[in-house]
Structure to design on (244 residues):
């Protein structure tokens, strides 16, 4: 990764805004609206259905897919399998978020099964990440105070962010959806994931400068995703080679 990665991330964001990529989200029912709002603020176009009759058509029209296991049930398992058949037929990039797989062994088993179907990226928090074996073909993004992006020997840590991000439900799910939006415009999944997490972290820092708590952070975060530009990214970026 060259030293001018923040400039590359800024350029990717400009490409994303020019392309307005369609991101289909098989998203848990807790955070569908904030995830859709976050994608729209950034410049992507979200869609959210999980109907088994329609999911293949929606995924065929999308530029990327995010699969989030947060409120998993039998119907969603079926919808996910249909969606992955379509992404494989049409070679579209997709992201796995094994949300709350640490609460449910069957969910962790299903997440591991999905990892074998070739997501470009898996995004998870530390409690979820530690349970799963991520193949070298998949970029692993472990979020937290510092976001770790790893693939084989390549690893980077994004130090940008604000603690209030962790107090708003849905920010992890939104991170996965934003990674999918970057994958729609950048074929190098490692670079796309790193750029996405850098943009999320810088936007969180900007939001944290005016927020007084979770209730004011969420709208400020949306505004920051809408307004963030190359200058903020290159000026604020704190990206380091990861230690662990
Ligand atoms: N202590 C922290 N300080 C700053 N940002 C954080 C912290 N913990 C999590 N985040 C950020 O909050 C978002 C959600 O991360 P995380 O809490 O790990 O996922 P989840 O919401 O899925 O549990 C990510 O963008 C991450 O960078
Ligand atoms: C609370 C909850 N329960 C099942 S999914 C979900 C939302 C999790 O959102 P995030 O992982 O982004 O905090
Ligand atoms: Mg989560």
């Amino acid at each position: 990764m060259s030293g001018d990665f923040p400039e590359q991330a800024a350029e990717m964001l400009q490409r994303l805004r020019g392309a307005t990529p369609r991101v289909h989200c098989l998203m848990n029912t807790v955070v569908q609206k904030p995830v859709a709002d976050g994608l729209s603020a950034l410049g992507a176009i979200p869609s959210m259905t999980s109907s088994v009759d329609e999911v293949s058509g929606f995924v065929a029209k999308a530029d990327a897919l995010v699969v989030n296991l947060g409120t998993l049930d039998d119907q969603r398992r079926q919808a996910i399998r249909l969606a992955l058949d379509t992404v494989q037929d049409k070679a579209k990039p997709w992201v796995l978020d094994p949300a709350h797989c640490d609460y449910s062994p069957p969910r962790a088993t299903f997440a591991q099964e999905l990892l074998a179907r070739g997501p470009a990226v898996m995004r998870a928090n530390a409690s979820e990440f530690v349970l799963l074996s991520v193949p070298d073909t998949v970029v692993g993004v472990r979020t937290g105070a510092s976001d770790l992006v790893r693939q084989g020997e390549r690893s980077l840590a994004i130090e940008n962010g604000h603690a209030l991000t962790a107090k708003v439900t849905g920010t992890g799910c939104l991170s996965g959806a934003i990674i999918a939006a970057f994958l729609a415009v950048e074929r190098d999944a490692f670079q796309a994931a790193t750029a996405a997490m850098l943009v999320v972290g810088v936007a969180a820092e900007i939001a944290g400068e005016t927020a007084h708590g979770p209730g004011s952070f969420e709208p400020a975060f949306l505004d920051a995703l809408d307004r963030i530009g190359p200058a903020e990214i290159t000026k604020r970026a704190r990206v380091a080679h990861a230690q662990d």
Q: What stands out?
A: The longest helix spans residues 189-208. The mean pLDDT is 97. Residues 99, 125, 172-173 surround magnesium ion (ligand 3) (CB under 6 Å). The longest strand covers residues 22-26.
